[in-house]
Amino acid sequence: MRRTKIIAIEGIDGSGKGVQFHLLAKALADMGHSVACRDYPMYDTFFGAEVGKLLAGTGAVPADRVDGKSMALWFALDRWESFRDYRDGETDFLVINRFVLSNAVYQSIRDVDLGKPDIVDWALELEYGHFGLPRPDVNLVFSVVPEVAEQNVLKKGYRDYVGERRDVYEASHPIQARAMAKYAELAARFPDVELVPCMEGGELLPVERIAARVLAALAKRNLISSSDIQNLKRRDSL
User: Fold this and answer.
1) pLDDT, position 7
2) Residue 231, class by beta-carbon neighbours within 10 Å (0-12 exposed, 13-18 middle, 19+ buried)?
3) Domains annotated on the chain, with CATH
């Protein structure tokens, strides 16, 4: 039986994944759990750097023109390489910002993929089956209207792999809209995928309310206990 509980943070670009990734890791640590974190793509690795070039469009071919299986393989190799040192049980929790599900989603909905066979199942088999990456206990997908997420992308500022610009996926509204729809489709299909509603009345919720929904989703799945949440509340009130 696996000892480390794995939580993957998923969603379209600009959905607030990075903020909630850090808040969740801190909350779990404040509860007294040991926590490890991983964030993909890892742009400072060999395969991650190649992914960065493809996303930035600085290579011979940009990411949105590469065939789906080839693009999925680049992302998968980045994770496979980093997981060679992973040992189950070293920490209570492993929190991951973007994991296998995002690969399955994004390499299935680009303009170049339209009208072609869906490769979701192939991408999942590639990473979970062939490369043997551990399947998360839950994939938390932040549900955000693409137009709102796109405004958040513009606030990201400088990033090493793309500078001040948006990458080729972030810059495409159709890709982001289809990605959100695909995430919702997979949440209905797979029991380990859960949507976290992040909006009310057309407005993005405050980060604290979204974080509370994340903890509630984990408690519902018995990944944390109600006493964990109470201990966190007591700690925050001190």
Assistant:
1) 98
2) middle
3) 5-237 (3.40.50.300)
Q: DSSP letters along 109-129, please? A: SSGGGTTSPP-HHHHHIIIII
To which H or E segment does residue 17 belong? helix 17-30
Residue 128: is its pLDDT beyond 90? yes
pLDDT digits (tens, 9 = 90+) for 86-112: 999 999 999 999 999 999 999 998 888
Whose CA is closest to 24, among 86, 100, 87, 96?
A: 96
Threshold 0.70, pTM exceeds: yes
Please tell me the distance from the alpha carbon of residue 119 to that of residue 104, in angstroms, as a whole number: 7
Distances from the Cα of 105 to the Cαs of 40, 72, 183, 202, in angstroms? 15, 10, 7, 24
Q: How far apart are CA 105 and CA 118, in angstroms?
A: 10
Alpha carbon distance 30, 16 (integer Å): 21
Please give the span between the terminal C-alpha atoms of the chain, in angstroms, as a whole number.
37
Task: Report d(CA 74, CA 41) in Å as an integer.
Answer: 10
Two tokens, residue 172? 């495409």
Query: Judging by DSSP bridges, how do beta strands 203-204 and 199-200 pair with one another?
Result: antiparallel
Q: Tell me which residue has tokens 């709102």.
A: 148
